[in-house]
């Protein structure tokens, strides 16, 4: 069965720049050149929230792993962290000295990486919105930056035509991939963390192995590729291009599977849901579309949470089979006889409880942060009042 259009959201008043699903797929966030962030409900008849706060175009949005926060970056040089609820409260911090093109949470939700036209990549602590460090070797705008699934590496893509791989601990650039013939619009890690894919204005998508730093695959399109997203199984990649199409690539076969037409004008952004049964796209036509994946349903009924890389992979294998990461290993539904259902249910409920606690922590942090901001405002006002009083006193005495 081919992928099919499931939902269609209209509400933005300018080009959509970015889309992302929450963990539970109940919400979809989108950013737009209209300076707004929208949170759409996947439940029919539920109204969307429009969040206003940025003073200029919103370039990027992403849900935190727990789904209790949404980060957005803007042309107004700031990053905002929102609570995706009716109130839409947010904290704001000046992140860069130019447009913020990209925001991305680490998989533990503790760190945020941002990329900007000021040519730097910055890493922040989410809970205090505290700046940690800058990575500055790019010599042009940085369009995109992502953490690896294990949080040890950062990859960044720039208009200097390079993709750089950084070690988060040493803060060193470990490798620069320079094979792009144009600006690099988007980059992301394969779910296994062993490969990266990058999309460029030279109409290509390139897949590299980050262990051996070599090109594994190269897809030549006929239009600028703006965005890409890996399916959680690691077997597929979806791309969004200026020719208004979305394309689904089969990475195991190394070929184009589907070309989807839905947008009028350039397709600007695309993202799979965390389970992979849906993907969303946005375009210059101000529309957000949600698609049902429909392929390979048997494959990702339960995607392994962390994909263990298959033990010894013959390095001499055909380049593709090296996208090891147990990509080929279909998960068989064998029930371990030693484990009863009760134990599994207990584990599930524990996981849910932990997730709930993490969510509450996010909200608390956010609240504290909002309070700190209000306190600062109050202190500023107080200072102003005291200064004014002193002026009045001085005027009277003089």
UniProtKB/TrEMBL annotation:
- Is Repeat one of the keywords? yes
Which parts of the chain are coiled coil? none
- Superkingdom is Eukaryota
Keyword annotations of the record: Coiled coil, Repeat, WD repeat
UniProt-listed InterPro entries:
WD40/YVTN_repeat-like_dom_sf, WD40_PAC1, WD40_repeat_CS, WD40_repeat_dom_sf, WD40_rpt, WDR55/POC1
Question: Do you know which CDD domains this protein is assigned to?
Answer: WD40 (cd00200)
Question: What function does this protein fulfil?
Answer: May play an important role in centriole assembly and/or stability and ciliogenesis.
The UniProt entry's sequence similarity note says: Belongs to the WD repeat POC1 family.
Q: What is this protein called?
A: POC1 centriolar protein homolog A
Can you name the source organism? Pampusana beccarii (Western bronze ground-dove)
